[in-house]
Design goal:
mainly beta, nine-stranded antiparallel beta sheet, 13 strands, globular
Length: 190
């Protein structure tokens, strides 16, 4: 049986997509068709959760780590207007003006993205993400033009219906080629 080539390192970030979550009255989650967000710059995610310890007999008798997902930042060249409308509920009026309203409610979404590796690419999905509105900033031009980026603070939590936080799909697997066509959902084994 031939050896499967595995990555030793990862680098790069590309193919960032999002798919808006719809929660059914029975609690099931469905996803819209993923849409690409061009201009990925940086993604940082820190694990969220705590270590739970129970003491008995004068020692740690039981210990467990909880998985509350991830918190972090997604830095993009620009956050597209389509994302602002789909996720943040901003409205485009008849004059083409994009309006942010105080009563708009942000929607959860799945975040799909890809890392390169030294041997193969790896695609990831975070199933239940909520983003905060990005800050607004700008600066004057001088002798050089330095692009200003926009950053979303995100939290990725377990999906309410399955408890799944994320999945990763290596290049060459059955789900790899169709990964950005629909959010990958695990099929239970029979």
């Amino acid at each position: 049986m031939p050896d499967v080539v595995k990555n030793k390192v990862k680098f790069g970030l590309n193919n960032v997509h999002y798919a808006v979550v719809t929660e059914g009255t029975d609690g099931t989650i469905t996803y819209s068709t993923p849409k690409r967000i061009p201009g990925a710059v940086n993604l940082t995610l820190d694990a969220a959760g705590e270590s739970v310890q129970f003491y008995a007999d004068d020692m740690v008798y039981y210990e467990e780590n909880t998985n509350d997902g991830y918190t972090g930042n997604l830095e993009m060249a620009l956050i597209p207007d389509e994302f602002r409308k789909d996720v943040f509920g901003e409205i485009e009026d008849a004059n083409g003006v994009l309006i942010e309203n105080k009563d708009a409610k942000a929607k959860h979404f799945a975040l799909l993205f890809e890392f390169d590796g030294d041997a193969k690419k790896m695609r990831h999905v975070l199933y239940y993400v909520l983003a905060s509105r990005p800050s607004i900033s700008g600066s004057t031009k001088n002798n050089t033009k330095e692009p200003q980026t926009e950053t979303l603070s995100i939290t990725a939590r377990p999906a309410p219906d399955t408890g799944d936080v994320k999945a990763k799909v290596p290049q060459g697997s059955a789900a790899y080629d169709t990964f950005f066509g629909a959010v990958y959902v695990s099929t239970p084994e029979e």
